[in-house]
Amino acid sequence: MPNRICGGYPITQQYRAMNIINDSTVVMMSFNNNTVVKVNTGINDSTANVNAPGVFEKGKYEVLNFPNPPTQGPNAGPSIPNPQVLLASNPYQMRRTTNGTLIVNGNNGRMWKSVDTGRNWIPDVTLKPGQNYSANGVWAMDIAPNGRVLSMGTAGAMSDSLPGSSWQSNYLTVPLAGGYSDMEFVDCNNGIAAGGASITVTTDGGNTWIDRFSPVLQALNANITHLSYVNPTKVYFTTSIGNIYRSANQAVNLSPVFSEPLGGTVNDIAWAGNDSLWACGYTAFVPAIPAASRQGKVYRSFNNGATWDTIGIGPVGALSVTPRAIDFPTRSIGYVIGTRNAVYKTTDAGATWTDISPFPALTPQLGYTAIQALNKDTVFVIGVGFPRKAVYRTTDGGANWTDITANILTLPVGNLNGILMHDINNGYIMTPGGALLITNNGGTSWTLDLAPTSNLFTTAAFVPRTVGAGVNMVNRKVLISGPNLPNGGAPMMEYGNPANTQVNSTELIAGAACSAPNSGSITITATGGLAPYTYQLDAGAFQPSNVFNGVSAGTHTITIKDAYCGLLTKTVTVALNDDQVLNTNITTATICAGASVQLIASGNSTTYSWSPALGLSNPNIANPIASPLVTTTYIVTATLNSCVKTRSITITVNPNANLVIVADPGTTLCEGDPTLLTVYDAAGTSGPVSLIQSTSHGTGIAGSVSCNAAGLHTENSYWKPYNRGTGRFTISWKCEQPTPII
């Protein structure tokens, strides 16, 4: 789309990033020069053609961002907006979030966002700062249905972010200049990838990598061709200059242990046992060796590389082969592959070699590029010979071969560069363009899976290198890489579904109880990784059982280890099932001052405590007597192991009322006769009340009085009407004599 033309300085922009805002509005950003244009495409939207007066073009154009309008050069006006902050570089896409924010991607690990439909923009750094990939381009972008913005770019760099949150990335990179021809893991943690003068080491299973680039190899113009990782303190490297190096400290230092006398190249190395080594290669094309005398070479040592002998392999002269790779499944049986359809076998530790080529008369001839011997009899080889490529397998040590190329020839892949078999039925083949071929049926068919990188895949390694029988390939972690390519680098790609390759778990948790604080249980169901598993609760010992009984309530840490590398640690919570019971005999009571009432707490608690303690016969029993002087709320705290409950009882204390004590209505008292009394309080409320009469504070007779001969009984006494209180009052009554019967 051309911009305005003024002053003889026409400017034309190329637009790739575009977003349709609605049915009549489009926003575009130029691939260069940071130009943003909004185009209204409604039926009445048009723009006058400045070169053709009276002519109107479809659409109304508004320049929202432009660094030097209108024409650059000496007549340039102020930027739009002024100041102009948009510094997008090569944006390929423009996406819009659900809240209307526009996002464009580009170079330098950076995106740009606009919340006002393209008028103003702010930068957003997507890749982690301070890394050797921080400035990589992020050219691929999309928004997932859940709103997560996904970004991918140069060398496989990737990150993602939910709106309003920071960018996250699990991307790991090896040295940007690194490129790899071989990779091996000796165990779950220790692995090495090497190629050229680059050696990259991991000690944590590939989570992080250490750059051990060799300036010595670089100065010698030596390229590492293959490596053999014997154990964490012994690794061998073969090189293109005919030298073999050994390191005892994971490539911190390299020591030469062999040098091809006439130069040439050592292509591969294999080991068996504690001290046996075999390498293969060829001598340099030097005048000292006429063409008629050329022959492939195997170099072997039985003392950890202290001394070597050289053995010729294959034809001599014009039909000589170039050995490419070597494998020794046992100390006596080994295989070598190379050019001219060559597959050779030894059964005497490399002293002699026999041609066991699968199809020696093939035309055009195949050059075999990779070999893997699962055991002394089961061997896989791959070969290329344009336009042919093939995969062969033997299960009888090379006596017979089966072509398992199958449908590979119909798949859009290039050369077959490397092979990694888990067992006779399951494995991978590495090809260019980030393409991985997979079989799960022994090569009857192959499926293609593409990595998010254009890397040239040549090498792969299982982590760890070997596992026992019964392990499924989908549960094995595999890393894949290759040489360094322009704009692609050599990213170390991990293949596999984390649900399969990593340990995962679900838990069935039964809570503990107040009455049985260690009655909880945790039952773990583990999946993924490399079974069988062992389990740990908190800091206890690992156990084979996935069930933990006798667990207390609260937060616990469980750890699951698979049989090799996998480790999962997570936090779980065991709930507390509240089975504590607490009841009280009353919740409220009303007494007169000086009276008492019993408080009773019941249930399954082991201890009880009442507060306040004032007025209680014993605050630390379940059933104290309460005699408060004023209205008091007593709180009982019941404890059952770690569980605590409380209840409250409020005792209202009323002042002593005036009590009226009379004989039952209509009762005639005769001298010397006893009678029952009824007690009335000031409100006129009566009830059955037991009385104790006393002229002092001691206990006297109860429940009755007698008239004396005087006929009038007045007495000042202390009476205690239970449940009503204690007070001093005067009881007066008249004893009437019955009328004599005449």
Task: Describe the model.
Among the domains are: 15-161, Methylamine Dehydrogenase, Chain H; 512-576; 582-654, Immunoglobulins (Immunoglobulin-like, Sandwich); 660-734, Immunoglobulin-like (Sandwich), CATH 2.60.40. The protein contains two helices and 63 strands. It has a four-stranded antiparallel beta sheet, with no helix packed on it. Strands 7-8-9-10 form a four-stranded antiparallel beta sheet, with no helix packed on it. It has a four-stranded antiparallel beta sheet with strand order 14-15-16-17, with no helix packed on it. The radius of gyration is 47 Å and the shape is flat. The protein starts with 14 loop residues before the first strand and ends in an 8-residue tail after the last strand. The model is unreliable at 1-10, 662-673 and 686-742 (pLDDT under 50).
The helix-and-strand class reads mainly beta
Task: Specify the biggest β-sheet.
Answer: 4 strands, antiparallel
Q: Indicate the low-confidence ranges by residue numbers.
A: 1-10, 662-673, 686-742
Do you know the CATH topology of the domain at 15-161? Methylamine Dehydrogenase, Chain H
DSSP strand tally? 63
Distance between the termini: 144 Å
Overall CATH class of the domain at 15-161: Mainly Beta
Number of helices: 2
Kindly provide the radius of gyration, computed on alpha-carbon positions and rounded to a whole number of angstroms.
47 Å
Shape: flat
DSSP strand content: 35-45%
